[in-house]
Amino acid sequence: MRSRGFKPSVFYNRRIQNEINLASMDYLYKQCHYININVAVLLERGMEMEKSLKDKKILVVGGSSGIGLAVAKFVYKLGAKVVIASRSAVIRHDALVGDVGERIQTVSFDIASAHEIGSLLDAMRKIDHLVIAVRPDIKPALFQETDFDSAREAFESKFWGSYRLIQAAWNQINPGGSIIMTTGIAGEKVFKGSSTMGIINNALETLCRSLAVELAPIRVNAVSPGFVEPKSREVQERALQFPIQRLATKEEIARAYVYLMTNDYVTGTTMVVDGGARLI
Q1: What pLDDT is recorded for position 209?
Q2: Could you tell me if 96 and 64 are in contact, meaning their C-beta atoms sit under 8 angstroms apart?
Q3: What is the per-residue pLDDT for 42?
Q4: Residues forming a β-bridge with 222
Q5: What would the pLDDT profile of 113-142 be if each residue is shown by its tens digit?
Q6: Rg (CA), the chain
Q7: Is the Cβ–Cβ distance between 109 and 82 less than 8 Å?
Q8: Which of 267, 155, 239 is closest to 201 using CA atoms?
Q9: Residue 94 neighbours by CB under 8 Å, 6+ apart
Q10: Which residues of 30-41 are buried (b: 16+ CB within 10 A; e: fewer)?
Q11: Alpha carbon distance 209, 181 (integer Å)
């Protein structure tokens, strides 16, 4: 005979709920343990990254603005000895000290000048990493409307400038060092009005793979940025269609350069950082 008020279904439901609660607690415990492990791994990797760039001499060509400046800031915070070389670096020295740090060196440098390449490398002696982040001053235009001299000047600075600089600098890079070039999304995806930059970027990516073989064990890589802030309203609206649904920050692009400097097993690679833009 059942006692008054006793409901087997209630007892059974409570038992199930207790089991669920215990299972949930066990799951949460395991998740917390997993998260703690991941946090520990991330901290360890961060410490390794900081240690691997501490006191390393990094030459950032085109480092007085844009992505190059973001790279200079990032590696400076990791303890690197940063040298910024660009046409405006010396003129902007005080501003760059404010942006990056007081221990930076600045050098006035035109990558299209063979003479200035020689002078720069004589002053540098040995370096650990060479970052080339120059951007030619060429406006988007349809192929049939592109000024030939402007296109040739763009090749002269971004492609041939990089080619000539690397050819002169490779034997001044310390063991374990690397070279990182900068290409761009026009080399990954066709856009109207970007034929010149598309050809230049593809040429640099081919050069990257070739030099990874020919200059080994020096590592040679490239970063291919997508659309980076700031951009016009039209480009911002286009970015909403990307998988990440926004433009990149310069700091997000800079992390790719740091990764390529600190991972000793990556060479001949073009790291695309575009929020999935090339997929759309």
Answers
A1: 98
A2: yes
A3: 44
A4: 181, 270
A5: 999 999 999 999 999 999 999 999 888 999
A6: 26
A7: no
A8: 155
A9: none
A10: eeeeeeeeeeee
A11: 11
Alpha-carbon distance values, 122 to 62, 110, 119, 128, 252 (Å): 18, 15, 5, 15, 33
Which amino acid is present at 150? S
Maximum alpha-carbon separation in the chain: 105
Q: What is the CATH superfamily name and number for domain 54-279?
A: NAD(P)-binding Rossmann-like Domain (3.40.50.720)
Residues of the chain with pLDDT under 50: 1-3, 6, 10-12, 34-35, 37, 39, 41-44
pLDDT tens track for 208-233 = 999 999 999 999 999 999 999 999 99
Give the count of beta carbons closer than 10 Å to the beta carbon of residue 276: 13
Main-chain phi, psi angles of 118, to 5 degrees: -60, -45
Nearest residue to 58 (alpha-carbon basis) of 180, 158, 171? 180
Sorted by where each begins, the domain ranges of the chain are 7-53, 54-279
Supply the pTM of this predicted model: 0.82
Q: Which residues pair with 271 in a beta bridge?
A: 223
- Give CA–CA dist 37/42, Å, rounded: 9
